[in-house]
């Protein structure tokens, strides 16, 4: 490989970008070369820092995947327990755009029996659905005995996204906040037969901006960009205000919120697995795994509300 090609690799680029540049360069220069020759081309292209970064990234990715596996194995035990007892589980994954909900759901369901869980991601309601009870289109997806439903955004859209984006009226917003807890008690808690877990993924504004930028520049992620994404940063304070009200009005003893700090995606995923496993008593639970939540990552909804209220009083608005 000539010096010109080697020099074209920007040392300031991230690991993923460097790998893509290397692959592109190899395709141009190694039409009929053997794997061994291609490997030497890669070595020649990369400087020492890039080699170290790529090895570190590969090792970290492997380590993170391995660290999750024992907890993912526990989820299979938990699933069997739910099937045997006929109990049902609903897990809500709510939060701002690019807060890590989808990636966490994929890690939760990675090894689960797909016959006994469903991921539900309701889209924009149709004109017909807009005339119906807000909860109806979610109730239609509720689990049968032994099943787990994971909502990638839930009925709490009515408490955050819809009022901020003007998708519902102020009267509809207020009515939802007034009635949602009684809905959860009547339709969901179901005399102890249904387990409800409400998770709110909390990403900081700078980290959200970085993730949006990645989506814009990565052809494999561009499909994730939505109309709401493009306005999320400008409407940050409005979403923050609605989050604070939601936690104040809808965090209860029977159906509490757990706020998950998700700037560190891996820690958010690990702590989510723990929360799910801690919500059910099942046979065969590991005696060696650490199921204790990390208090720096998992914050009870009432404590998050108190923090936000204190920040608002001091600065006029909360930071998250």
Question: Key features?
Answer:
320 residues; 2 domains; disordered N terminus
Task: Note the overall shape.
Answer: globular
Count of all domains? 2
| Strand order in the largest sheet | 2-3-1-4-5-6
Mean pLDDT: 89
Superfamily at the CATH H level of the largest domain? P-loop containing nucleotide triphosphate hydrolases
Give me the number of helical elements.
14
Straight-line distance between termini: 49 Å
Q: Describe the largest sheet.
A: 6 strands, mixed
Helix content: 40-55%
Q: What's the number of extended β-strand segments?
A: 6
What is the CATH top level name of the largest domain? Answer: Alpha Beta
CATH topology heading of the largest domain? Rossmann fold
Cα-atom Rg, whole angstroms? 23 Å
Query: Based on the structure given, which CATH architecture of the largest domain is correct?
Result: 3-Layer(aba) Sandwich
- Give the class from helix and strand content and strand pairing: alpha/beta
Order of helices and strands: HHHHEHEHHEHHEHHHEHEH
Report low-confidence residues grouped into runs of 5 or more.
Answer: 1-9
